[in-house]
Amino acid sequence: MSVNGMMLTCQRAQSIRAARARLRGFLLGVAADQKLNDMEMNALKTMRLDAEGLFSSDEFSTIGFLLDRALVVGVLHQDERLDLLASLLTLEAEVCESTLLGLLSGMASDDHINGSELKVLLEFVRQNEDLFSRFPFD
Question: At residue 132, what are phi and psi to the nearest 5 degrees?
Answer without folding.
Answer: -80, 0
